[in-house]
Specification:
Length: 164
């Protein structure tokens, strides 16, 4: 079937079906990237992103890591625990009161980051960052309407997609 005929078929579909197909394309692209990350780096997408942030910001704390990834602090703590147990990062108590934890990558992290597919942040955050302000504003407004219709739990806003 030619691309022109295929486009005609798509044009005849109900608008909600066309948009559903677009969501499927987006979600499947994200899933494909996460599978490639897992295959090439041996880590989940959120773990890889956290590792890359720690690598770029030696001495970063868990609170700052959570802020950089836009996730809940307990989620960041779980990522840190996993990366530590895998021998990719180390944490050390620092500061006058020794309450602050500074995170640093270990030698094994360099090899993981070198074989991992880019972008470390994931394909969706990377694509969103490349959009102009007007497009982002429209998306934000339209997705807010969809989220309201779904009566979705907004607590999911701070859960990495790779963990969903």
């Amino acid at each position: 079937m030619s691309q022109q005929n295929n486009q005609g078929e798509v044009d005849r579909l109900a608008p909600e079906t066309r948009v559903l197909r677009q969501f499927r394309i987006v979600f499947n692209s994200i899933k494909s990237h996460f599978r490639q990350v897992e295959r090439d780096a041996g880590l989940g997408g959120a773990q890889l992103w956290a590792l890359s942030v720690i690598s770029q910001s030696p001495g970063i704390g868990v609170t700052e890591l959570a802020r950089a990834l836009d996730i809940h602090q307990s989620t960041a703590s779980n990522l840190v625990r996993t990366l530590t147990s895998r021998g990719l990062i180390a944490s050390a108590r620092e500061g006058l009161d020794r309450r602050g934890v500074a995170l640093r990558t270990l030698a094994a992290a360099d090899a993981v980051l070198q074989r991992a597919p880019q972008p470390f942040v994931g394909v969706l955050p990377d694509a969103l960052a490349s959009l102009d302000a007007a497009t982002l504003a429209r998306l934000e407004q339209d997705l807010a309407v969809l989220i309201a219709r779904l009566a979705a739990d907004e607590a999911g806003a701070h859960m990495p997609l790779g963990d969903a």
